Structure formats: structure tokens, C-alpha cells
Amino acid sequence: MKxxxxxxxxxxxxxxxxxxxxDIERSSPQGRGGNxxxxxxxxxxxxxxxxxxxxDADDNLPEVELLRRLxxxxxxxxxxxxxxxxxxxxxxxxxxxxxGDDAGYITEGLGGLYVQVxxxxxxxxxxxxxxxxxxxxTPPELKGGTATKRPKPAKLNTGIEIMVPEYISNGERVLxxxxxxxxxxRAD
Length: 188
Hints:
about 0% helix, five-stranded antiparallel β-sheet, single chain
């Protein structure tokens, strides 16, 4: 798989190890004839050791075959997040450092996520595109303000903070895009 085709969550082979891509930075060439470069922040699987590496767009990284099992978040066991397979109820435990920043989107009973498994070992979780979270703290809407929509900070029930439109108030349920971490609308 070419570096330019790799997305967050892909698992690749590199330097005789297996790594999951957690973050991608794309740098455009300076001047004519330069190559687009991709900087990957990846973590070893298993183990979770961080590696920062850069590649040209055409560099080839073999993708590792992994199982994606549809699962539901069940509970936290100490620092570990425990997910249940939707089909056979196998439980998969992932440490908090493996879950990383995605922990801010995981709520009790969250379904529609995938646990990635290599050789019967859970190695990562892939969140749904958006999740519903509750606003627990946000300043009130300013009355008589201008007609422009001003975003304001809102703390959500999982502890993360996002920017929301002014009309959102405490106690409302909102959709949050798990890829960008941005407000994606009101939830039903």
C-alpha cells in the first residue's frame, strides 16, 4: 500500500515490526519537482511503542491483515477499556494508552465500533464516524449579540472540550465527529 493511500487506523509492516497509524501529517513540496511527504505517528502492535517516521507518497508499506470485529463498549476495568464482540460476545480489553485520545468519545454502551484483532490479540479500536455526547458545561448564549454565529467552548460528559454554536446549552446532546473532534449537529 502506498504511503499516500494510508489512513488513520491502518496497520502496516515497517522495519520488521507491525504498527498502527495514529496520526498523519502531509507536507507539500517546496518549489517545483518536490515530492509530497507523509509523516506518520505510529504505535507498535502489540506494545504501543511510539514511532515517528516520514515517507514519500510512493513509498510502499505492506498492510497487515487484521480482523475487524463489530463491538460495543462494555465497561472500564482499571485503566483498560473492555469491549464485547457483537456476534459471539468475546470480550476484548484494550489499555488506556492504546485507546489514546479516542477515550474522550467512548461512553457506556457505545456500539458501532470495531475492535481490530491480529493473531487473536486486540490491538486497536476504530470508532464510529460520530458519537452522541452530552454538554455538561458551556456559557449561556449572549442575548442581543450580532447575527454572526460565534462558537463557544463546551465541556462534554466524557471530559473532552469542543467548540459548539452559541445556541447549544447545558444538558443538550450533541453529535461529535470522531475524526476531527468537531461539533456535527444536535443529537435526537
